Here is the input.
Amino acid sequence: MHAVLRACSRIPPLAWDSLLAFLLFLATLSALAGKPGPVTVSAMLLLPLAWRRRAPWAVFCAVAAAAFTQWLLAFQLPADIALLVALYTVAAHSARRHLPAAGAVVEGGILLACLRWAPDGRFAITALTLTALAAAAAALGAHMRALRERAAHLERERDQRARLAVAEERARITREMHDIVTHNLSVMVALADSAAYARSADKSSAAMAQISETGRQALTDMRRALGILRAGEADAERHPLPGIAELEALADQTRAAGLPTLLEIQGDPTRLSSTAQLTVYRLVQEALTNTLKHTPPGTHAEVRIRCLAEAVTLDVADNGPGTRPLDAPSGHGIPGMRERAGAYDGTLHAGPLPGGGWRVHTRLELDGGADVSG
Here is the structure.
């Protein structure tokens, strides 16, 4: 059945309308008794319907002209049904301004027909019956137009949602790539500097080994971030995106790059969703990356996370200079952090501390109630 419907949907409308006009013409021939005049007028009424959807207003005018010719010749024909089909088509497919004019023409034709052919004493009932048929045809056409316009509107909305989803996914990928690449490159640069100034071969070798490990970790993180885009990819399942549990490894990495980092986690982070944990991880990663890039040697950083049932709070502070260069308006850096926090109805505050240093603070709103911190 579905195959038949699909095959029928591929047939052009002109073919269907031509078939309709031909079948209606054949159905009326038996009532014409082979008279050339009525046959010709019936053809003038019905055959234009083959182009009804291609040129609905022109077809209606042609059918109306044929109907008026029929009235002048005093032929009473069953082919008058063409007027109802043409009126329906105007309501369904022509410009809205055409429908009142078409309705007036049909109603005028009804009155003329009733004046000539209505039985004695039956003028009113005949006119009302024909008017009701015309109104039903127009209403059905208007309803079909509304259904078609609604379907087109829903399709436009679906396409718009798809475009928004693509744009949102592109922004998410951009943030992930920025956080991964910027952090790991900053660590690698710091390690390379320390290797260049190392006073012993052992320290230099250890720094180079750490550079190699950081590079491999960056590649792994990029594969994770890209692998999650392909549904069902096994690599994304084997290597889940980082969360709060991986912050200790992140702190070790920044310590190796020359930024002593204190990490303190209160509460039970396992109760947070994986996406919330990833957000916390990326916020900490970006904050430490900025500290690593913009502070002199000897700076210390502190990361404090408090996990509640209804929210998770995050503080990253350092004792370096209380200034930072402005981020470019590309959505990276602090603007990107604000976007991540905004996804959880959070507001990110980043700025200098009164006694010196820099602090990043945010609170991510979660569902829940009681404090789960120990």
